[in-house]
Amino acid sequence: MARPRTTSDEAILAATARAVSRRGPARLTLAAVAEEAGLAPATLVQRFGSKRNLLLALARQAEQHTGAVFDRARREHGSGLAAVHAATAAMAAGVQTPEEMAGSLGFLQLDLTDPEFRAHAAAQAHRMRAEVTALLTDAVAAGELADGTDVVGLARGVQVSYNGALLLWAVEGGGSPAELIRAELDRLLRPHQA
User: Fold this and answer.
1) Residue 92 covered by a domain
2) Within-domain flag for 159
């Protein structure tokens, strides 16, 4: 009879994300993830089979995680623009040091060079854009943004500003990633506000 799982796959993937932030995927080991999750490395092999499969599971989860972040922001904030700010800040919460940003960029290397990882990265990027588009549409309907605002184009601009602000913060420092993202999004959105 199999023993019951005491640690969920979600908890293991959260531990994996933390370990990737500190080490990057190239230096990541199953032993490091196991230590972070409080498990034996053999448990990870039993559940995921390999480091690659574990990283693919993390990549696959990114789209769902993005949806959950935006759902929570939508529930907690009465305004579409406030929800955009809250969701982007929450998505950046896992990056607090330039070294953690380097770990994320290491994952981006996988996304750019491996078709399986790229497919998951594209799905996550499309999900983020769709979520931002929906919130900007809500902002137009609520009178926060001017009628006729190109919400699809503006959503793409939000995505570019979010990613660019993270990179700029990692290089230049100063404040937190969330503060820089907020400032850049305010600069982008201000001309469209009603």
Assistant:
1) yes
2) yes
Best CA proximity match to 9, nearest among 40, 51, 43: 43
User: Please, which residues have CB within 8 angstroms of residue 115's CB and are 6 or more apart in sequence?
Assistant: none
- pTM (2 decimals)? 0.89
Of 109, 86, 129, 112, residue with least CA distance to 24: 109
Q: What is the Cα–Cα distance from 138 to 69, expressed in whole angstroms? A: 17
How many domains would you assign to the chain?
A: 1
By residue range, what is the domain housing residue 157? 62-192
Whether residue 120 is contained in a domain is answered as: yes
Per-residue pLDDT tens over the stretch 104-161: 888 888 899 999 999 999 999 999 999 999 999 999 999 999 999 999 999 999 999 9
Cα first-last separation, the chain: 63
Length of the chain: 194
Answer for the pair 58, 17: CB distance below 8 angstroms, yes or no.
Answer: yes
The first and second tokens of residue 115, run together, are: 């078709």
Write phi, then psi, for 145 (nearest 5 degrees): -115, 150
Enumerate the H helices of 114-176 as residue ranges: 115-141, 151-172
Smallest Cα–Cα separation from 57: which of 25, 87, 86, 16?
16
Q: Is residue 14 part of a domain?
A: no
CATH of the domain at 71: 1.10.357.10
